[in-house]
């Protein structure tokens, strides 16, 4: 089982709250763009829910893969 | 060994939690309670008539006309109903019966609670003098933003009173709409309190390049006009013609309804690091109305940041369903951002007013940079001026209490790729 992670790039404002909270899924590239894994393990469900809550742009979607 | 008397009493969560204040901190507390497994009653009380909405976009996307007001909504009626959250809107709390554990609402309703979460936020600091009937606005509520956005359509001459984040974001939106904008600020160094003189000056320069004029070091003496505002008079006699005046001179916590209670109310409700009020274990406070401990500062203080409201809501929801020994305390580094002409300024940490600023890294065109605030060789805060990708490093440095010497090694020499740090625009 795993989770699908999607960031709506028209909403993302690069606050980096998700990078801070779940660095194993979200990161900044050297060029300053947000990059993320498209899938994550179920064990990260709570962390990803936190990232969704912490996102000022409400840009993160998490659902079943 | 048998359990002692204290251990034999299993923790019993409250039966009914009442959250007063239906903005970000309030709704996130209510939703967070369900996420934390709370199955008791949750009531969310709001003074304003609208479902919970987000305030940062009011001075940004809503003013620019990029977002309809609906898009600021933080939760739908259906979502709140699904979560079993009772919502009472347009009915401000007017008094607290602490002994009887009841909140009195403006309508006369009395709402009983086992645990109360105060999330009543803050309201604009009142004007010290009379104003014309129309053309003068605060910018705090959804209807304020819509009124100002609509007023922009009439091509007004705009005067902004107060050069804080709200005032300067409003100036940015007005200038982008092609309107003539003048900002009045009694302090000689606008934004220095928030960003330090170095970054504050850089942000003012950005505004000036977009045509915004500043009158600093002068306070407003009077606002003239009959039914509609016509001009703003400064204390040096300067008269600024104005069709639209927007005031952003700070906010005061909404604690008037709690007067007479045991709560410590000096500039917000004093709480411990778990979010519980210092004088009553059944009362908690979150968001702009709350004064929590902040790392590196001896006294608890209000932090009017979006992320602080969210963090506090999460902590209180978690703690409300747990015994005291298992409660979490605040740990996050304060973070705030502000948007101007598509450029984002991001600040982590909480600097003292007199802390020095040092630039660590600058873009080749000189317009974007990373700076740290420091005192006694230790970082108190850091800011990214149009360089969001530097934030993780800055957060780590500020959180770990890095020295200025350590911080200077964070970034290599400036890049020669001029496009690299351009902030994406919508």
UniProtKB/TrEMBL annotation, chain A:
SUPFAM superfamilies: 4Fe-4S ferredoxins (SSF54862). Pfam families: Fer4_15 (PF13459). This is Ferredoxin.
TrEMBL record, chain B:
Keywords: FAD, Flavoprotein, Oxidoreductase. SUPFAM superfamilies: FAD/NAD(P)-binding domain, FAD/NAD-linked reductases, dimerisation (C-terminal) domain. The keyword Oxidoreductase applies. It comes from the Bacteria. Residues 335-407 form the Reductase C-terminal domain. Residues 16-313 form the FAD/NAD(P)-binding domain. PANTHER family: APOPTOSIS-INDUCING FACTOR 1 (PTHR43557), RIESKE DOMAIN-CONTAINING PROTEIN-RELATED (PTHR43557:SF2). This is Ferredoxin reductase. InterPro entries: FAD-oxidoreductase/Apoptosis (IPR050446), FAD/NAD-bd_sf (IPR036188), FAD/NAD-binding_dom (IPR023753), FAD/NAD-linked_Rdtase_dimer_sf (IPR016156), Reductase_C (IPR028202). Pfam families: Pyr_redox_2, Reductase_C. Its cofactor is FAD.
């Amino acid at each position: 089982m795993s989770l699908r992670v999607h960031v709506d790039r028209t909403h993302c404002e690069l606050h980096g709250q998700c990078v801070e909270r779940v660095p194993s899924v979200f990161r900044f590239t050297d060029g300053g763009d947000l990059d993320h894994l498209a899938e994550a393990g179920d064990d990260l469900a709570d962390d990803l829910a936190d990232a969704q809550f912490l996102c000022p742009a409400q840009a993160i979607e998490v659902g079943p893969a | 060994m048998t359990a002692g008397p204290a251990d034999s009493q299993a923790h019993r969560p409250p039966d009914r939690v009442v959250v007063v204040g239906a903005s970000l901190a309030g709704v996130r507390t209510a939703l967070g309670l369900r996420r934390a497994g709370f199955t008791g009653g949750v009531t969310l009380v709001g003074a304003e008539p609208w479902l919970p909405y987000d305030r940062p976009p009011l001075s940004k996307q809503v003013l620019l006309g990029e977002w309809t007001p609906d898009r600021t909504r933080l939760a739908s009626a259906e979502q709140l109903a699904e979560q079993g959250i009772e919502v009472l809107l347009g009915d401000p709390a007017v008094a607290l019966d602490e002994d009887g554990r009841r909140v009195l609402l403006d309508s006369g309703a009395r709402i009983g609670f086992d645990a109360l979460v105060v999330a009543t936020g803050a309201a604009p600091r009142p004007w010290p003098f009379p104003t014309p009937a129309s053309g003068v606005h605060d910018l705090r509520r959804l209807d304020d933003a819509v009124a100002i956005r609509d007023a922009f359509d009439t091509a007004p001459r705009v005067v902004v009173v107060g050069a804080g984040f709200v005032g300067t974001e409003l100036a940015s939106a007005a200038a982008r709409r092609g309107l003539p904008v003048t900002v009045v600020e009694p302090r000689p160094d606008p934004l220095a309190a928030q960003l330090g003189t170095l970054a504050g000056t850089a942000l003012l320069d950005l505004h000036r390049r977009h045509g915004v004029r500043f009158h600093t070091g002068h306070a407003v003496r009077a606002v003239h006009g009959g039914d509609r505002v016509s001009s703003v008079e400064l204390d040096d006699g300067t008269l600024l013609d104005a069709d639209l005046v927007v005031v952003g001179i700070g906010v005061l916590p909404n604690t008037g309804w709690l007067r007479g209670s045991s709560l410590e109310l000096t500039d917000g409700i004093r709480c411990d690091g778990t979010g519980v009020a210092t004088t009553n274990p059944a009362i908690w406070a979150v968001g702009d109305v709350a004064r929590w401990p902040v790392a590196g500062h001896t006294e608890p203080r209000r932090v009017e940041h979006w992320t602080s409201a969210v963090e506090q809501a999460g902590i209180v929801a978690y703690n409300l369903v747990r015994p005291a020994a298992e409660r979490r305390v605040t740990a996050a580094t304060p973070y705030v951002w502000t948007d101007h002409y598509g450029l984002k300024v991001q600040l982590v940490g909480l600097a003292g007013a007199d802390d020095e600023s040092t630039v660590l890294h600058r873009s080749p065109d000189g317009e974007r940079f990373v700076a740290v605030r420091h005192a006694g060789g230790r970082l108190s805060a850091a800011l990214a001026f149009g360089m969001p990708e530097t934030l993780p490093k800055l957060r780590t440095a500020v959180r770990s209490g890095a020295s200025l010497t350590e911080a200077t090694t964070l970034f290599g020499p400036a890049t020669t790729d001029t496009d690299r740090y351009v902030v994406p625009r919508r």
